[in-house]
Design a protein that fits this description.
With 292 residues, the chain is an alpha/beta fold. The chain has helices at residues 3-15, 18-25, 29-43, 59-85, 104-113, 126-135, 196-207, 221-229, 240-244, 276-288, and strands spanning 48-51, 54-57, 91-97, 117-123, 140-143, 152-167, 177-178, 187-191, 213-218, 235-238, 250-255, 261-269.
Length: 292
């Protein structure tokens, strides 16, 4: 068996679809199928259960994939470590985040200081981020929900209250604070399932015995904030939003619940080599958020 066959197997095992794996690897599907068949012949066991055109990783394949992931990760780490040791100025760092807004100023100063580093960003839910980190698809995650696992380390960047944002003229706009029961029946603007604002809202409403009335859900909280300003509904927004708000179209209220806060962290894997570029970006991000 050769290294290329192992990478082909890894791609098919993760996707459980030969056609999609061939597209991702940019090779012909028959060639990929022949490589898998030869690998299975060399190992003496089938790695997939085949049902017509569908395939599924079997117990032999699952056991083999764990070893292949480990071996290929070690080789990739070794290549990156040698590049760093050779003093190469260029590097790549891949970062996933639930919302990219907190990274804009971080990126501005990092790119200015490290113009040759290739920064790649992905917007993902917490569950997808955790999987990307475990698979080695990203180096770092910036998350407002815990990314757990024995192999994951994290550092708190911001721990801040989350406020209620309502349009000016709303019945609650003149109040300084509000309880979740006061929000019964109110139109709520929030993110899609899996993102931290949605998870927080559902948790707080459930604790109060209420069902949130969601009128708008999206991927990017910054856009949702503007929809609150035009009067579509109310929403939960971290306190940093109030400090940067100059619109005059919304009012901000404290929420009478100690769980109504956001903890922003940067996370990485402790059991793999973190490239010099990724280390620089992680440290730069931590330094950018001095209040932890």
């Amino acid at each position: 068996m050769d290294l290329l066959a192992l990478r082909y197997f890894q791609a098919v095992a993760r996707l459980e679809h030969v056609g999609r794996a061939a597209d991702r690897l940019r090779i012909a599907q028959p060639s990929l199928s022949r490589t898998l068949a030869k690998l299975e012949n060399d190992l003496g066991v089938p790695l997939f259960d085949r049902h017509g055109r569908r395939i599924r990783l079997n117990r032999f394949g699952a056991a083999f994939l764990r070893r292949v992931d480990r071996a290929l990760a070690e080789l990739d780490d070794a290549r990156q470590e040698l590049s760093d040791a050779a003093g190469l100025e260029r590097g790549t760092v891949s970062v996933a985040a639930e919302t990219l807004l907190p990274l804009t100023e971080v990126l501005r100063s990092f790119i200015a200081d490290h113009p040759l580093v290739d920064v790649r960003l992905r917007q993902s839910s917490a569950a997808v981020m955790a999987e990307q980190l475990r698979n080695g698809d990203v180096d770092l995650c910036v998350a407002s929900q815990p990314l757990t696992g024995p192999e994951i380390r994290s550092r708190v960047l911001v721990d801040e209250p989350v406020l209620l944002c309502v349009p000016v003229g709303h019945r609650l706009a003149e109040r300084r604070h509000v309880g979740i029961p006061d929000l019964a029946g109110e139109p709520l603007i929030t993110t899609r399932v899996g993102y931290w604002q949605r998870e927080l809202a559902e948790r707080l409403f459930a604790k109060a015995g209420l069902e949130p009335r969601i009128v708008c859900e999206g991927d990017e909280p910054a856009v949702l904030f503007h929809l609150m300003g035009v009067g579509l509904g109310i929403g939960l927004v971290p306190a940093t939003g109030r400090r940067s708000d100059t619109s005059g179209t919304v009012a901000w209220l404290d929420v009478d619940d100690p769980d109504c806060h956001r903890v922003l962290t940067v996370a990485w894997r402790r059991d793999t080599y973190l490239s010099a570029a990724a280390q620089r970006f992680r440290d730069h991000t931590i330094e950018h958020f001095p209040t932890r």
